[in-house]
Amino acid sequence: MLDQAFRLRLRFTDGRIGEQGLDLYDGSTSFHGFARALQITTHAFMADEVVGRATALRSGALFFEAPRKGSVLFDITARFKRRPKSAPLNKEVFYDFTTVALERATGNLSVEPQTKYVESRIRTDESFFDDLSEKLEGSLQEAHRSIDNEDVIVCLERPRSTLVEFNNSTSAWVHTREENPDLHEYNGNMTRFNTKTGNGRAYISELDKIVPVRKSEAFNQRNKAWLTWSLHGDNVSTAKELVFRGRQIESASGVTKRLVLDDCWKV
């Protein structure tokens, strides 16, 4: 029976930890948020499926050992009972997938994958990681509680090296501004689109960059075909321009994280 395990570590440093330790409520809330985020990320690694429920993980489990005396360290073991749906089950791919997922979810959109599998996954279905970032948002907001209230830095580590650092900058990204209910029109074109999930990426002229987009529940389904039409035009360098109607989701620092679309039509 398959039984393979990879080690991770959460390290809380700085702030007042050296003097008085980590606040119990803030620290436990942060750890719970990281636990949820790692469960969701590991499920995505195993099942090629993005969900918002940390309890969805099957055929694998995450465990932590007792903290070491004199430090706030949590040693975590990711243990797998079956092979992932598409990913190779080896430590380099697991660490790379986890790093890329959490880096992108905390605002480092230019993070470079270190394995061929993750590189190929981004190239063929980048919206998968956009969707995963959105599902991780609530967990990571909770995970940053110690960072926000205790002025600490948290590192997710593998043996002998750091995978991801969480700090005030990542906190400013995961905390979003209240969604503006007003609809606005934007000009641009699709660059990626997943017909199954309704998520994709689009170049938006007003922002002068490519951003993740997703259809809202109120999206005008009669115009859905324009999204694939625009993507095809982008791929073959023909007509592709659309008008999008939707809302911006912004980080706490005012950076556009995604557009939620209610409608679109050909220019």
Question: Care to describe what's here?
Answer:
- The protein is α+β, with helices and mostly antiparallel strands and 267 residues long.
- The chain has two domains: 4-174, no CATH class; 184-266, Nucleic acid-binding proteins (OB fold (Dihydrolipoamide Acetyltransferase, E2P), Beta Barrel).
- Strand 6 (184-194) and strand 7 form a beta hairpin.
- The model has no long low-confidence stretch (mean pLDDT 90).
- It is globular and about 60 Å long.
- It is built from seven helices and ten strands.
Break the fold down into its secondary structure elements and pairings.
Blueprint (H helix, E strand, L loop, with lengths): L3 E10 L3 H4 L3 H24 L12 E5 L8 E8 L10 H15 L10 H28 L1 H6 L2 E6 L2 E6 L1 H7 L9 E11 L4 E6 L4 E7 L9 H12 L5 E9 L5 E11 L1
Helix pairs in contact: 2-3, 2-4, 3-4
Question: What attributes characterize this protein structure?
Answer:
OB fold (Dihydrolipoamide Acetyltransferase, E2P); 267 residues
Quick summary:
This protein is of the alpha+beta class and 267 residues long. Helix content is 36%, strand content 30%.
Question: Gap between N and C termini, in Å?
Answer: 57 Å
Assembly state of the chains shown: single chain
Overall pLDDT confidence: 90
Indicate the percent of residues in helices: 25-40%
What ranges have pLDDT less than 50 throughout 5 or more consecutive residues? none
Q: How many separate domains make up the residues?
A: 2
Q: Numbering strands along the chain, what is their spatial order in the largest sheet?
A: 2-3-1-4-5
Strand content: 25-35%
What count of helical segments does DSSP give?
7
What letter string, H or E per element, gives the SSE order? Answer: EHHEEHHHEEHEEEHEE
Overall spatial form? globular
Q: Roughly how many Å is the radius of gyration? A: 20 Å
Let me know the largest β-sheet: 5 strands, antiparallel
User: What class do helices, strands and sheet pairing give?
Assistant: alpha+beta
Number of strands: 10
